[in-house]
């Protein structure tokens, strides 16, 4: 088993042999149990690799989302998103709302869930995306960077709109959306409603093109000002745990 790198089977061997003797399992049942252990181990290892490659800032899950707080998103809506139909269809997802209400949490939780369902994910703040884009352009590695952005099943860009995009940045962002559109999902979190994106995109033609790509077909999740601050709720829960 060790030479064949059947690690899951090897890890389960002693316990499975004990159970086989105790329960008088047949050789076939024992073999089935060991093979299942190997399958489970490989599955968990692949999930761990996908989560590691995604570069999440944290690793929240949708089960951790606090519905006890005042939310404009319902459990039914979350369950619908949980099915990942939007990801299978290659649709964009826009998560909008004021700061601190759970946009980043929701994006990473959905990304984490996607990793558990055989999808590759990459999480990146929009500021980091622009910084890496600038470095790629100046070092003649743009094509390699663009391939990195195009490869995952789900690309999450967090906090769009913190600064204006110049003409070149807007053009590159538009190309990225076109390349991924219809086949691979882009998830964007932002405080800025999509119909106001022209305020942070210098080129009005490119701005209209980007908005048009997203506003009609994207899945929209909108947190409102009435939503209780997610950071405030998390702080309350932390205080309870510390107490």
Description:
The structure is a single chain. The chain folds into two domains: 48 residues; 179 residues, 3-Layer(aba) Sandwich (Rossmann fold), CATH 3.40.50. 54% of the residues lie in helices and 11% in strands. It is built from ten helices and five strands; from the N terminus they run H-H-H-H-E-H-E-H-H-E-H-E-H-E-H. A five-stranded parallel beta sheet has the order 2-3-4-1-5. The radius of gyration is 22 Å and the shape is elongated.
Compute the number of strand runs. Answer: 5
Helix content: 40-55%
C-alpha geometry: elongated
N→C terminal distance: 48 Å
Sequence stretches where pLDDT stays below 50 over 5 or more residues: 230-243
Key terms:
243 residues, alpha/beta, Rossmann fold, 54% helix, elongated, disordered C terminus
Please summarize what this structure is.
The protein is α/β, with parallel strands linked by helices and about 240 residues long. It has ten helices and five strands; from the N terminus they run ααααβαβααβαβαβα.
């Amino acid at each position: 088993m060790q030479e064949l790198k059947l690690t899951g089977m090897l890890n389960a061997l002693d316990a499975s042999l004990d159970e086989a003797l105790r329960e008088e399992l047949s050789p076939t049942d024992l073999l089935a149990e060991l093979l299942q252990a190997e399958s489970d181990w490989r599955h968990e290892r692949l999930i761990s690799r996908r989560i590691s490659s995604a570069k999440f800032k944290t690793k929240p899950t949708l089960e951790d989302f606090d519905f006890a707080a005042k939310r404009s998103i319902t459990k039914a809506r979350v369950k619908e998103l949980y099915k990942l139909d939007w990801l299978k269809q290659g649709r964009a997802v826009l998560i909008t709302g004021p700061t601190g209400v759970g946009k980043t949490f929701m994006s990473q939780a959905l990304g984490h869930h996607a990793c558990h369902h055989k999808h590759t994910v990459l999480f990146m703040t929009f500021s980091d995306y622009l910084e890496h884009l600038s470095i790629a352009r100046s070092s003649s590695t743009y094509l390699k960077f663009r391939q990195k952005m195009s490869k995952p099943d789900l690309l999450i860009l967090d906090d769009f709109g913190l600064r204006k995009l110049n003409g070149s940045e807007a053009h590159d962002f538009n190309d990225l959306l076109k390349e991924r559109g219809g086949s691979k999902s882009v998830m964007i979190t932002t405080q800025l409603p999509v119909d106001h994106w022209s305020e942070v995109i210098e080129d009005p033609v490119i701005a209209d093109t980007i908005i048009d790509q997203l506003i009609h077909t994207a899945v929209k999740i909108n947190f409102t000002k009435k939503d209780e601050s997610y950071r405030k709720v998390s702080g309350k829960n932390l205080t309870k745990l510390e107490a």
